[in-house]
Amino acid sequence: MLNLLKHWVSQPKGSVVSWHGADPVDTASNYYSLVSEGFLKNVFVYRAISLISNSIASIPMSVRNSDSSKNEYLSRLINRPNSYQGHSAFMTYVINYLLLAGNVFVHFNGKELHCLRPDRVKILPNREKTDVAEYEYAVDAVKIKLKRENIVHLKLFNPLDDWYGFAPIKAAIRATEQYNEMSKHNLSILKNGGRPSGCLMVKGAKNLTDEQKIQLRDQLRNAYSGTSNAGKMMVLEGDFEWKEMGLSPKDMDFITARNSTAREIVQAFGVPPILVGIRGDSSFSNYKEARLHFWEDTILPLAEFIRIELTHWINCRFIQSAEIIFNLDAIPALASKREILWDRISSAKFLTDDEKRALLGFSINKTKD
What we know:
By secondary structure, the protein is α+β, with helices and mostly antiparallel strands. The protein has 3 domains: 16-190 and 249-330, no CATH class; 197-245; 338-363, no CATH class. It has 13 helices and 10 strands. It has helices at 2-10, 28-39, 43-57, 72-79, 87-101, 168-171, 173-191, 210-224, 249-252, 254-268, 287-318, 335-346, 353-359, and strands spanning 61-65, 103-108, 113-116, 121-125, 132-139, 142-147, 151-155, 198-202, 240-244, 322-326. The protein has a 3-stranded antiparallel β-sheet with strand order 3-2-7. The longest helix has 32 residues, at 287-318. The protein is flat. Residues 1-19 have low confidence and may be disordered.
């Protein structure tokens, strides 16, 4: 970094140093594999992302002008972004795409806001590779160029990419694969009657031919494998002995291992395990405490990030001083902390009534002289 700054200082006046460097890398295929193997096939990934998106989407939003008056047009745009989505549905799309891809591309067509699928959007940098020139939206063989000022690009920090954000689901990919494999293993055992595989041994010197081995194996599979045949007594003719080759499901203790892996998955998204039904977690004394921690450490910081980025885009696109405001008083999970604040302010004897009202966000009573 120091060498780069020295190089910039030594450049002639008016020259530009590229901070981005290489061209953006297409992430469409990577996005598809993450979504198909994670979100669509893993219950804890789905639940964690849904919990975050639904929580942020439930926060009421409005747009205020610099004089604290309500901006009616922008408030309507935020609360009804397009003809088929309200505020809650639209924000759900935004958060889901942000957690699955690390990027969100919101397009303004002059009247409505639409959340585009991130794997269909490509960043086109300028010739110097210093900034974004425009965006390209591709569906099948159709490609559409989109102006930069009409796109809101939200991206999470990515230490290895200057153009695209880092998807939180990538941090949980190993735990997700492990959990999926455990599920497949248990399902396979269940299909085989709830028992590990074993071997059929022929006593004595008699050897079976290959054809006899195949026939005997098929007969055993048809008669005793599968959930409908679980618990049936095996009857063998001749000098045969059945011997199990693995540990029982109880001995292998998959429940503990799966809970540990599931805990890793939800922690990558900042969700306390108790909120998604994972038992045995003692980090919080009760559900209420975990829910408060979830809102303070995960929901509010992510919601604030989105609020600031959307506010910046509004001011640049519409050339006016306005700000998106959250109504945090409408959040039930924060009610306990709000009550503590209200009690503390109301009991402060060194504050006037007008000062207390101002601290609590109410208007000050104006009396005529």
